Structures are given as structure tokens and as C-alpha cells.
Amino acid sequence: MEFVDLIKSYIEIGMLGLSAILVISMLWFYFKKGLEKSDEKDKRIDKKDDKQDERFSDLLNVLIEQNKQNQELIQKQLSDLSTTVINGVTKHTIDDDENNSLSKIEADINDCLKKTLIKTNSARVCLIRFHNGGRDMNGLSFLKMSMTNETVKLGLSSLMPEFQNLFRSFFSYLCDRLIKEGHCYIDDINMLKDVDTTMYEFLFSRDVQSTYSIPIENKNGTVIGFIYIEFTNKMNVNKEQVEHCLHDKKIKIETLLSF
Questions:
Q1: Looking at the structure, do residues 204 and 248 belong to the same domain, yes or no?
Q2: Using CA atoms, how far apart are residues 229 and 237, in angstroms rounded to an integer?
Q3: Distance CA 209, CA 254 (A)
Q4: Pair 159, 219 in one domain
Q5: Whole-number Å distance between alpha carbons of 227 and 146
Q6: Within this chain, do residues 123 and 243 fall inside the same structural domain, yes or no?
Q7: Does one domain contain both 166 and 84?
Q8: Are 133 and 142 in contact (CB under 8 A)?
């Protein structure tokens, strides 16, 4: 009886073992199946992502190429425009009417300066105009200025031949005050020692003691130059008369240049 019970126990244990093995096998089968499905899904997702990446890359390359073409087109248009403007300026030939008109304007400007010289009892009165003067390696324009009209008292040599194509930074303090404050009055050039040594040395070397300037503007209110007065003796300065002459001639010269 005991032997039969022992055999029965082994048989029961065996059945349980087989059942356990069967359950484990089934679980492993479904687990592996799940892994295979997951791998297939991942592969499909990877393929989908690869296709999306490929489409995005193609689109990005198209956009880059279009941007490159647009930049080249813009550069060409700017180059053509610059050439047209330069040719228009350098190749333009004035006719008799334009020549007479411009000559009349220059004569009227010189007359304004002469009257200012007499009324202010100054040493020099001139008109200085702003202009571009070439470009640097980054394509930025150099800001320059030139003296275009001048009158001086008897015995004083002209400065105009030397005052051509100068960088505005040469008179940085003066130009900055003109644009920001609408005038630049220097009653004593010694005040320039601490703010603009270049301008101080330029004036001191010619025995200039005081200078007074007012900007000339175009129709849009942009500063295009300035009227400049020098005194070699600051005791001769009647500041009220100087200010009156500057404002009066400013209006007249702006009118002349707005033809």
C-alpha cells in the first residue's frame, strides 16, 4: 500500500511538473511571440521614422537651395542697382540749363558766406558737406566730409584744398554735437583737449580760438553738412550776432540746396 501510494505521489508530482513545464512553455511562447511582434513593430516604426527623416532631409535641402538662390538673386539685384546709380552719377552730363542753375546756387551760397564773414567779423566762414567715401571689407560706407564753399578775411590762406575727403571722425566731437544738439559752439578751443584732441590740434596749429557751427538738413531732416565759422581772436565774438547769422544762413542755404 505504501509502495502504491509512493508511486501515485510520484505520478502526481510528475503531472504537476509536466503541467508547470507546459505552462512555462506556453508563457515563453507567448512572450517570445510578443517580442517578435514588438520587434516587427519597432522595425515598422524605424522604417517610418527613416522615411520621415529622409523626407525632412529632402525638404531641408530644397529650402537651403532656394535660400541660396534667393541670396544670389538679391546680391545680383543690389550689384546691378549700385552699378546703375554709380553710372548715373559718373556718366551724367549736365546741360546748359543745369549748369547755369548749379552755378547760380554756388554763387548764392558764397554770397551768404561772405555776408556772414562781414557781419560776424570772423576769420573764416565755410560750408562743409557730408558724403560717402568708399566701403570697407564688410561693405560699410566710410562717412566723409569735404569743404565745398569758403570765404576768408584778407591775409588768411584758404583751407578748402586741404579739407577734402576727410573722415567725419576727424571732427568727431563737432559732428556728434551737430546731430544730437542742433549746433556746436566752441567758445574756447581749450575745452577740446579732453574731448577731441585731433580737432584741438587742428585748430591750435592755425591759431583758431573759437568756432561756431550749425547743421544743414535736407527735406527729410537728415543732416547733410554744416556752416562753420572760425575766429582767430575770441574777443571779436559777438555770440548773439553769430547765432543770428547762423540761423539765417541755415534757412537760405537749405532752400538753395533743396532745388
A1: yes
A2: 11
A3: 28
A4: yes
A5: 12
A6: yes
A7: no
A8: yes
Give CA–CA dist 122/245, Å, rounded: 12
Cell numbers placing 70: 534667393
Residue 36 burial by Cβ neighbours in a 10 Å radius (0-12, 13-18, 19+): exposed
Task: Please report how many Cα atoms fall inside a 13 Å half-sphere around the Cα of residue 30, on the Cβ side.
Answer: 5
- Which cell goes with 142? 566710410
Domain count, the chain: 2
What residues make up the domain containing 247? Answer: 96-257
Read off the pLDDT of residues 28-43 as tens digits, 9 standing for 90 and up: 555 566 656 655 655 5
Angstrom distance (rounded) from CA 134 to CA 113: 30
β-pair type (210-217, 223-231): antiparallel
Summarised one tens digit per residue, pLDDT across range 58-104 is 665 666 676 666 666 656 555 555 555 455 555 566 777 777 788 89
Main-chain dihedrals φ then ψ at residue 226, nearest 5 degrees:
-160, 155
The pairing of beta strand 124-135 with beta strand 184-186: unpaired
Both 33 and 53 in one domain: the answer is yes
- Contact criterion met (CB below 8 Å) for 226 and 118: no
Both 64 and 29 in one domain: the answer is yes
The CA-based angle 59-65-71, given to 5 degrees, is 135
Sign for the CA dihedral angle at 83, 84, 85, 86 comes to positive
Quick check: helix, strand or coil at residue 209? coil
pTM over cut 0.70: no
In angstroms, the CA 170 to CA 136 distance is 18
